[in-house]
Bifunctional ligase/repressor BirA (Candidatus Flavonifractor intestinigallinarum), 327 residues
Amino acid sequence: MLRDEVLALLKAQGGAPLSGEAMSQRLGVSRAAVWKAMEGLRQEGYVISSAPRRGYALEDSPDLLSPGELMDSGRKIGSNLVCLDTVDSTNNEVKRRAVDQVPEGLVVVSAQQTGGRGRRGRSFVSPPGGLYLSALLKPDCPLEQVSALTAWSAVAVCDAVEQVCGLRPGIKWPNDVILDGRKLCGILTELELEGETAALRYVVAGIGVNLSQSEADFGPEVAPVAISLAQALGKAPRRAEMAAALLDALDKLDRDFPGQWDSWLERYRADCITVGRQIKVLRGQEERIGTAVGVDHTFALVVRWADGSEEALSSGEVSVRGLLGYV
Ligand code: BTN
């Protein structure tokens, strides 16, 4: 849509003016079409100044999610962008669109979800005020390395939050993003394998970040264990700003995976707040208490049991004392 392309040009100027003539030449459309797109943007709430000979400049933006807000030709992740007001689940939407030839980089963003999904078949409460984003990835690596993407995604989210808000959250193993002991972001990575060969077809990395929700938005069950950036900082960033930062971070992840394994492992270890704490591990009906003592080279959590033995957990339900309601 021309409006998105005009907005992308204005944003790339960083507030500096750009003439209607330059825009019409770059986009290969008439000046009248540029003017019409500009009027459309103003009606959506964008504040765009215009001065003779200098051109148009973007002064202020509303809190909108649109391809024009997120387009960046330098990124592979987000090169194909779908922005929705509502959807059942952004992960589902990516999967519906991930038919054979769709290249890596498809991203679906939504302002809310009606059937948000969490790990272990749980639902993920996804009211307006959050940001729900899923990306289609096609990593070129052995299957046994792919599960690390879930941990890498958590580091990418911490990078994005730090870029936008200037503070770095922690990670509860394997990939809950935590602020003030409560959950700021949930991540669900899903793999699609070839039926006959079990080769990896694609990965969907789904991220739900709490931006401006209040206690009432979360509801009584979730509110005690969730936190939004507005609750933590008194102010939420624009959704598009956070979405763009997530796309930057996922694009870096995509370029680095799996080649830069050691540096992401080091960053994961620095962010992981599970290590050094008492944990409760739930396996089937069995519940066992131990201490998390490290993260090994495969991103598995190393736990020391009361008898002194150690075990590396690569999956499982882990509660961490002091976080998310485990006292
Ligand atoms: C969890 O905490 O259990 C994982 C939650 C993952 C939620 C995100 S929101 C975007 C994407 N779409 C979904 O349905 N789930 C993921």
Remarks:
- DSSP finds eleven helices and 14 strands in the chain.
- The pocket of biotin is lined by residues 89-91, 113, 116-119, 122, 124, 132, 134, 186-188, 206-208 (CB under 6 Å).
